[in-house]
Every structure is written in structure tokens, then in C-alpha cells.
Design a protein that fits this description.
- The structure holds two protein chains of two kinds.
- Chain A is elongated and about 100 Å long.
- Chain A is an alpha+beta fold.
- In chain A, the strands form three sheets. Chain A has a five-stranded antiparallel β-sheet, sandwiched between helices.
- Chain A is built from 15 helices and twelve strands.
- Chain A has helices at residues 11-21, 61-71, 76-82, 97-103, 152-162, 194-204, 215-222, 239-247, 268-271, 282-311, 319-329, 336-356, 359-379, 385-399, 404-442, and strands at residues 28-35, 41-48, 91-94, 109-113, 119-122, 168-175, 181-188, 234-236, 251-255, 261-264, 444-445, 448-449.
- In chain A, helix 12 (336-356) crosses helix 14.
- Chain B has one domain: Up-down Bundle (Amino acid/polyamine transporter I).
- Chain B is globular, with a radius of gyration of 20 Å.
- Classes of the chains: A alpha+beta, B mainly alpha.
- The interface between A and B is large, with 36 and 43 residues.
Chain lengths: 496, 363
């Protein structure tokens, strides 16, 4: 391990070392100044450009500190700093120059004072970032509109604002050898299983990685079955969803610079729930969930089923329907399988283009692609209208799945189903369903079977089944899910 | 904390056994029974039920004596006995897997993809089955716990819809077959339920508090449930096709589905869709035999390696299924084997296991 340099009483040594560390860093501002009653005390202030508001503004912590120091006689400065007599809330003393240099990267200012054998870290404006905004990917009709931001500190505060409990713990870790990204594990002390927390920490430490620029990197490295198309961590950009997860005894992982929080453990059912399922009446929530489950199924299988029925098992369809299918396909030069595949790929291309293009242009792509190109393709007899309907309906189904990562797994599996059904018809469909089911039955998220609560529901007295496809009335949902510690499962009871 | 402990619940056990029983019994029994006891097939089903219940009681007795699962119980027996026993059980499971894979493939080709090659359908089937086998019993149990109502509800609905085509004339009593025929019919039904034997291996897979009496009663419910379904299905098939036609059909239950007309239905014929029922139930039984075939082979060789044995069993099942399809008399051989050796040995083995251990103790 590299030996560290202790902060010296001689400020020149500290300055020299600090400048050596940040030799070629134009964005780091290093300011020497003479402070004190007689301007006889040399100080050295280092900070990242834009992370400090203005040192002359007296109502910032740093401004206040410098103000104090400029009025103090030389001898009293040490006492003032040691005792934090300036009354600064966020102040840290550091003993090594290297630690001070690293601490500055969190966006704070570092101050060296001549004759004082410690460096002082003072928080100021910090890195620039976006404020709290509405989440784009998880819209709800009813409920909070706040979304997570890129700043981990704001994100933890957003959760704490919703869970004002002394038992809410935030355990901070760092990942990335070079990025030193802060990662916070947010959980309820008495609800989360300590084994789950240990396992999460163990998995976070399993890899030594250069940099973690988003929680997605952590997710991929910590997943047990990395080859599975199904996400084993749930993501959310909504603080209320994260707070809800914390109250269920789950652990929320926040990563700095990422607006996506990871929720773990998770299961298939959780991916199909939304926050407003709990804010709306149970009939509405149940209906929405039924729709989402059906959407998940059709997003994966509909194009394949269409191919199986029209190419192999035409006897299933009523003659009139079959004839209209055939009539619609008249003049189309491609085999049905190729036609479906081409349309699906075109749709995925449109979707990708729509996502990448800026807002207004993205919408235009949707209109141009969906309406104009689609209509032109039908008119030119390149595709049949029925295939356009099938592809559009499949897309609609995939958009109805509330979690993007989860929807993606269905979108990718859709192509496997198209292949299987085009090859061996309904047999391929059945094989595909079996393979997906077997795969899902083998998946676990931190020990929780992925198919919970459809399997192993007896572990929690069949309580979790009440909040699955059918959402029971809130007053019947008295127990926490299986994620919470066994003796802390009651979440609702009538007052005596 | 939760873990992958290879333990399953009683609900999972119940559902697993229902599927294990349903597959082959609903497919082949109606034809056999119509040919043996005709209109009186119900008596055979009930008689088979009595045999099955007696067998289950006997297995319960053996489990009670063993106080553990068969593997653990036999671990103290002489090595040659273990090898012989596991070798036989493994061979029996592999042979049954081959037979089931052949029936499965035939069924799929006949009803879904007539033009596709037998080998290809078989390979695809065994590939998915292999993936399922390597998942262990937990994975298998979870799949069938999820599928349970998705299979049973459509089956009941279809049986309900098909009642429309039942002709009471077909139930008119005929000349009663001989006593031997009833016994034969009962034994046929019993043959389809010999998977009950595997309950002896279950104490290691269910939680300790669920083993013993609770396990036996759970399997008993599964057995009675299947018996009920079988009785209803036989009544519907007999009433729809009549004794003579039923005795000549290969898979009458699937044929029945093609005749069902749903009033105002969007779909014209449902046999292809309803094939899913037999796909999943036969798959359960095939999976069970492949799983235990691999397990027994592992026990027999005493070299650990779950995936390796699964691979061996799959290859053997493939070869056997090819033999069943392309060799005359192979199916007949299987029936004879099961009739005269397979089932009787499944009856004798529990007693033998109990006796072996007792002898060892007294020594």
C-alpha cells in the first residue's frame, strides 16, 4: 500500500504535495491566501471549479469559515478550527494530504491553515446536478410526482422524507477503484434480514471494478444468474416505490450519479406492480394487474401464436377468420414468418430511434414510423394489415409492463417464440412456455424464488398471494411480504 | 433467510403427484379399459383405486418402518444390494422415460405437426426435459405449482362442454365381462399409478414436519383427485364414442377435444390448444422418470455428478424412444415388462428394504 503523507504544520509542504497530486488538473482551483487580523496566516483552499458557490458570500459555510479566520489573531486559529467554533454543520478533519485530495472529489472544499496539522473539508454547493424532477419511466395517475435525481444524497433524503423513522438505516459503501462511487444501502433495521444485507455487501465486494457510473453496472455484477433475460434486481426511479420497498423489509440500493434505485430481493410479481396500485381502490388495482399479466404473456407470445395458428393449426380458427387472414396476405411476397420478423425488427428500430432522438423528434418518429411507413408498407403489399395489427398489439402489451427491464425480457423472448412457432408451430409454443417456466422456477433473488408468491406461498401463510394478480382490499393486507423478518410481519391492524 | 434447500411443500407435492398421475392414465387407460371391461370400465377404475389405496397404505407402513427416505434407509445395506436395487430402479425409470418420450412424440406428431421428423420432435422434447431435470425437484415442483389451475380449469371446462355430445345409449349395460377381466382392468389402472412408489423418496424433499402421515395423506388426496378426473373422463369418452370405437382409438381424450364445439366460440377446434394439457402432464411424468433415473444411476455408481447422469439418462431415453418407434414389438415388450416385472417389483421393493434393514439391525 502506498504510504500517505501526514498533513504538516508547515503549509508549504502541504501545498507542494497537493499540487503534485493535482499536477495537470485545470478544473481544480487552488487558491493561496493570507488571512488573520494582520494577514499573517497563510491558508490554502482547494476545490473543484463550479462546486463552490462563492467564497466571499458570508452565508455559505466556507465563506463563514474564511470570514472567521480573517478576523482571528494567529494563536486562536487552531482552537477555532479544532472546536469548530465557526458553527459549521458539515466539517471533517483529515490527517493525510492524500485523504484530503480524495475527499475534495466529493465536491467539497479543502482548507489548509499554516501551523494547523489537519486539513479541513467543508461542504459547499457540491457538484452541479438536476433538481428533483418527475420520473419519466414510471408514470402514475395517482401519487407523488417526484423522481430520483443523480445525487445520492438527495435520493436518500427523498426516501427519509417518506419514512421518518429512526430505524431507517443508510449504510454507505464505495465501489469503483477509480470512480469511488458512493453506494447507499437503505433499509429498516428491524425489518430487513441481516443475511440479505450481508449477501448484498458480499456481492458488491466480489468484483474490483474500474468505475461504477450507474446502478446498472452494480446490478449486472451482483446478479446470480447473469445469463438470464429476466432482471433479478428491481429498479425504480420513484422515491415512494423505494420507500414502500423499505417498509416491506427489502433493501434499496442507491448509487451516486444514478436516478435508478435497485430494490432487492425481488420477484416476478413485484415487476408487475405499480405504486398507484396501492393508492387506488382494489378493484381498479386488480383489473390493472390482470391487464398487465395478460400484457406480459402476449408481449412474449402473440406473434409466435399467430404464426403457429396460421401456418400449422388452421383448424383452430373459424373459417371466416381464416379466410380474412388469407385475403389480407394476398400479394405479400414474403413467408408469414419473415413478414412478422421484419415487422418486429422494424418496430424495435423505430422504438430505439424514438428513444435516442430528442423529445419532439422522438414523437415524430413514432408518427412517421407507425402511421406513414406502416400504411405505405401495407399499400405496397410488403406486409399484410393483420401483421401490422399483431405487431402493434404486441408493442402495446410490452408498453403496459411497468418495468422497462422486465418488459425487455419479454421483448427479447418474443423473438425466440417467433422462431420456435415458425419452426414447429404450437409444439414450439408449448416447448417455449415450458422452458421459460423452468427457467423462472430456477431463478432466485437473494434466496427468494422468482415465482413468489405463486410458489412457496405457504412460507408466509399464503399472505403474499393476497397481493399478487388479485389485490385484496387494503384492510385485508395486514401482513408484510416474505422479505420482512418473520416476527415483524404485521403492518396493519385495527386500533382497539 | 431463504435458501435453495431442495425442499418442497405439501401443496407442491400434491400438485406434482396429480400431474404425474394424470398424464399417461388419461391418455391410454380409456382405450385399454374399453377393450377389457367396456361399459363396466368404471368398476375397473374403482377397483384400481382400491388397489392404489392399498398400495399407498402399504407404502405408508414401509415409510413408517424406515423412518426416513429410501436412499437414507438403504445406505446401511450391503453394497451389492444397493447396486442391484438402484441399478434396477434406474433401468426401470430410463425404460419408462423412453416409452413416455415415444408416446409423447407420437402424440405431438399425430396432433400438431404430422410432417415433422420423429427424431427432431424427440430431441426438442428431451432438450427441454433435460433443462428441467437439472433444475432439481424444487424447480419441478415450482413449475407444476404454477401450472396447476392453468391445466385443470381448461380440462374441467372442456369436459363440461363435451357433455353435450354424450349419448346415454352408450351406457346401456352389456353382458358383464368375466371376473378376470375386472381384475385385469383394475390392475391396468393400478399400473398407471405405480408412480406412487416414489413417495418413498419424498421424505428427504419435504420438510421434516411434513413427512410421514401428512405426506401419505397429501399423496392420497392427489390420488383420489386423479381417480375422480379419470371417472369423469371415462364417462364422457364412453358416452361420446361408445365402447367399440373407444377401444380402437389411440388417444381418445385428444380426439374428444377435436369434437368439442363451444357455443358462439371464437375458436373452431380446440384439440391443438388442449394438447397443452397432455403436454404438461406427460412432461411431468417424463421428467419424474428422467430425474429419478439419473438419481438412481448416481446412487448405483456412487460417483457424484448430477448433470453427467442427467446427460446419460437423456441419451438412453432418446435411444429407447427411437427403438419404441422403429422396432416392432418394443411397446409390447414394455407392457409385458411392466405387467409382469415392473409393477410387482415396485410392490416388493419397499418390503425388501424394510426387511433388509431389520436383518442388518438384528445382526
Amino acid at each position: 500500500m502506498e504510504e500517505k503523507t501526514k498533513v504538516s504544520a508547515d503549509i508549504e509542504q502541504n501545498i507542494a504535495k497537493y499540487k503534485e497530486i493535482y499536477a495537470d488538473c485545470a478544473d481544480i482551483k487552488m487558491q493561496e491566501m493570507m488571512l488573520g487580523e494582520d494577514q499573517d496566516c497563510k491558508c490554502f483552499l482547494a476545490y473543484i471549479e463550479v462546486s463552490i458557490q462563492n467564497t466571499m458570500i458570508r452565508n455559505t459555510a466556507l465563506g463563514r469559515c474564511i470570514g472567521f479566520l480573517s478576523q482571528m489573531p494567529g494563536k486562536e486559529k487552531k482552537k477555532l478550527l479544532d472546536e469548530n467554533a465557526m458553527g459549521i454543520a458539515d466539517i471533517t478533519w483529515l490527517e493525510y494530504v492524500e485523504d484530503a485530495a480524495e475527499a475534495m472529489l466529493t465536491g467539497d472544499a479543502i482548507l489548509f491553515v499554516d501551523g494547523y496539522e489537519k486539513a479541513v473539508k467543508i461542504a459547499d454547493a457540491g457538484y452541479p446536478g438536476m433538481g428533483v424532477q418527475e420520473s419519466d419511466s414510471e408514470k402514475v395517475i395517482r401519487g407523488s410526482n417526484e423522481g430520483f435525481t443523480d445525487s445520492i444524497k438527495i435520493n436518500t433524503a427523498l426516501i427519509r422524507r417518506r419514512v421518518r423513522s429512526t430505524r431507517l438505516c443508510v449504510h454507505e459503501l464505495q465501489t469503483g477503484v477509480r470512480t469511488h462511487t458512493n453506494v447507499d444501502l437503505v433499509y429498516m433495521e428491524d425489518l430487513a434480514y441481516p443475511e440479505v444485507l450481508r449477501e448484498i455487501e458480499e456481492r458488491l465486494k466480489r468484483y474490483e471494478i474500474d468505475g461504477t457510473l450507474d446502478s446498472g453496472v452494480i446490478e449486472q455484477l451482483a446478479e446470480e444468474k447473469w445469463y438470464s433475460p429476466f432482471p433479478q434486481f428491481q429498479t425504480t426511479q420513484r422515491p415512494d416505490r423505494a420507500a414502500m420497498a423499505v417498509l416491506e423489509g427489502r433493501v434499496v440500493l442507491l448509487s451516486d450519479n444514478s436516478p435508478a434505485a435497485l430494490i432487492l430481493p425481488t420477484d416476478l410479481n413485484s415487476f408487475l406492480k405499480t405504486s398507484d396500485d396501492y393508492y387506488n381502490r382494489f378493484e381498479a388495482a386488480t383489473f390493472a394487474r390482470l391487464l398487465r399479466y395478460a400484457a406480459g404473456f402476449f408481449a412474449m407470445t402473440l406473434p409466435g401464436l399467430y404464426l403457429a395458428m396460421t401456418n400449422f393449426h388452421t383448424q383452430i380458427l373459424p373459417t371466416t377468420l381464416l379466410l380474412s387472414f388469407q385475403e389480407a396476405r394476398l400479394g405479400v411476397p414474403f413467408p408469414a414468418a419473415l413478414e412478422v420478423l421484419l415487422m418486429e425488427i422494424s418496430f424495435e428500430l423505430l422504438r430505439e430511434a424514438g428513444v435516442r432522438l430528442p423529445g419532439a423528434m422522438g414523437n415524430t418518429i413514432g408518427i412517421v414510423g407507425g402511421l406513414i411507413i406502416g400504411q405505405a408498407a401495407v399499400d405496397a403489399n410488403l406486409v399484410s394489415p393483420i401483421v401490422v395489427i399483431i405487431v402493434a398489439f404486441t408493442a402495446l402489451c410490452s408498453f403496459a409492463i411497468p418495468n422497462e427491464e422486465f418488459a425487455f425480457s419479454f421483448r427479447i423472448l418474443k423473438f425466440a417464440f417467433i422462431g420456435l412457432c415458425a419452426w414447429v408451430g404450437y409444439y414450439g409454443f408449448l416447448l417455449g412456455i415450458m422452458a421459460v417456466l423452468v427457467h423462472l422456477s430456477r431463478l432466485r433473488s437473494f434466496g427468494i424464488p422468482y415465482l413468489t408468491p405463486f410458489v412457496g406461498a405457504e412460507l408466509n401463510g399464503y399472505e403474499d398471494e393476497r397481493d399478487s394478480v388479485f389485490r385484496y382490499p387494503l384492510r385485508k393486507l395486514t401482513k408484510r411480504p416474505i422479505y420482512a423478518q418473520r416476527n415483524e410481519r404485521t403492518k396493519l391492524k385495527k386500533k382497539e | 433467510m431463504f435458501s435453495n434447500n431442495q425442499k418442497i411443500s405439501l401443496r407442491q407435492t400434491f400438485r406434482l403427484f396429480v400431474f404425474d398421475f394424470l398424464g399417461i392414465s388419461t391418455l391410454v387407460l380409456p382405450t385399454w379399459l374399453a377393450g377389457t371391461t367396456g361399459v363396466y370400465g368404471f368398476v375397473s377404475i374403482l377397483l384400481g383405486g382400491v388397489f392404489g389405496l392399498l398400495y399407498l397404505a402399504y407404502l405408508g407402513w414401509a415409510m413408517n418402518r424406515m423412518q426416513t427416505d429410501l436412499f437414507t434407509h438403504l445406505s446401511g445395506a450391503p453394497a451389492w444390494t444397493q447396486k442391484l436395487l438402484y441399478g434396477y430402479l434406474s433401468a426401470s425409470c430410463i425404460l419408462t422415460s423412453g416409452f413416455l418420450a415415444a408416446v409423447f412424440t407420437r402424440l405431438v406428431r399425430r396432433n400438431l405437426i404430422r410432417e415433422e421428423s420423429y427424431a427432431l420432435v424427440l430431441i426438442l422434447l428431451l432438450a427441454v426435459a433435460g433443462y428441467a431435470v437439472t433444475g432439481g425437484i424444487e424447480s419441478r415442483a415450482r413449475v407444476y405449482e404454477v401450472l396447476f389451475w392453468f391445466i385443470l380449469i381448461p380440462l374441467f371446462l372442456m369436459l363440461l362442454f363435451s357433455l353435450k355430445g354424450v349419448d346415454p345409449e352408450y351406457f346401456r349395460p352389456q353382458a358383464a365381462p368375466g371376473l378376470m377381466n375386472f381384475a385385469k382392468g383394475g390392475y391396468m389402472v393400478f399400473l398407471c399409478f405405480t408412480t406412487l412408489f416414489f413417495i418413498l423418496l419424498f421424505p428427504q424433499y419435504v420438510k421434516p414436519e411434513s413427512s410421514g402421515k401428512r405426506l401419505v395423506s397429501c399423496v392420497c388426496y392427489a390420488f383420489l383427485c386423479t381417480e375422480g378426473i379419470l371417472l369423469i373422463l371415462y364417462a364422457v369418452l364412453l358416452g361420446t364414442f361408445g365402447e367399440g370405437a373407444l377401444a380402437k382409438m389411440e388417444f381418445p381424450a385428444v380426439t374428444l377435444m377435436s369434437t368439442v364445439q363451444m357455443t358462439g366460440g371464437f375458436l373452431k377446434r380446440l384439440d391443438a390448444i388442449m394438447m397443452g394439457i397432455w403436454f404438461f402432464t406427460l412432461f411431468a411424468l417424463l421428467n419424474l422418470n428422467l430425474f429419478y433415473g439419473a438419481k438412481m444411476l448416481e446412487k448405483c455408481t456412487e460417483i457424484p455428478g448430477n448433470k453427467r447422469y442427467a446427460g446419460i439418462v437423456l441419451v438412453l431415453a432418446f435411444l429407447l424412444a427411437m427403438l419404441f418407434e422403429y422396432t416392432d414389438g418394443m411397446t409390447e415388450f414394455f407392457y409385458r415388462f411392466f405387467w409382469y416385472a415392473g409393477a410387482p417389483l415396485y410392490i416388493l421393493i419397499p418390503a425388501f428394504a424394510v426387511f433388509m434393514r431389520r436383518k442388518k439391525k438384528s445382526e
